[in-house]
User: Fold this.
Amino acid sequence: MDRGIPTEATLERMRAEEVAYLVGTPRHLLSKLEKDLIGKPWEQMREGMSVKLLERDGELYVQARSSQRQKKENAMRRRKLRALVHGLNRLKRNVKIKRDELIRKVAVLRKEAGRVASFVKVAEPGHNETVNRNTFVCTFDRGGWKTATDRDGCYILRAHVPWNDWPAGMEKQAPVLWKWYMQLVQVEEAFKTLKSDLNLRPIHHQIEKRVEAHILVAFLGYCLNVTLRMKLSLAAPGLTPRAVLQSLSAIQIMEVHLPTTDGRILVMPRHTEPEAEQRMILQTLKLELPPQPPPRIRAGHVEMPVPEHP
Assistant:
């Protein structure tokens, strides 16, 4: 299985050699398969996640649709469209703008809008025309916009799995292929977590036992990370371990040192009070911060910093 997009020649060779593959595909493939996929039934994987299967020319195509991903992509499209439309309206209201400057600013707006710019057709004035509402006209492709927003949240998986690679007695099903692909995603996420969040790499130890100890500690940290992910999947599916740890890392523990009159030091350990977002996370995970530690006294003296004179 591979999350990359191999060439068509590579896939054809793998099919000829009866090699199984499961890969992601470019977004434009959805438009080519849309007519064949319309009549296929959706199968519910979990809340907000559905899949359907299409078998064609010895290959299996799985269309996956996520309502949460669709909302996110719709919001991104609307934000870019809003910025483009507002920018074009500002240019229309500028009665003193010259044609060359108008064309340059329109090009900048379209570049910032990215693919969203294809839904707004702009008729620019000709070389000998002045800039006005008759020569500078913008039209919105509502049909294309609706089609694009309906496709948001969808993606296509492409697979070839010989029958001897399927579990005994199991038919070719979209949920099975989708779960296999999600396993690959989780493996890649595990490597990313070990390398970035847990700082497994680089390893600067020279002694073998220390290298093994470093890897063991990172693996134990990953086990805790997986445990946190499982708790979040039940209590708050929208949260990720990385986001939770980043938020909770702002809670700090400090010690306040106060000198006493007899030369000793009063040490008061304190942790910062959690903010609203941190309290919500702790309540969701059913966790509580420990009580503030009691103060303690120790011998010694505190060296106060001497202010520098200007």
Remarks:
- The first strand starts at residue 21 and ends at 24.
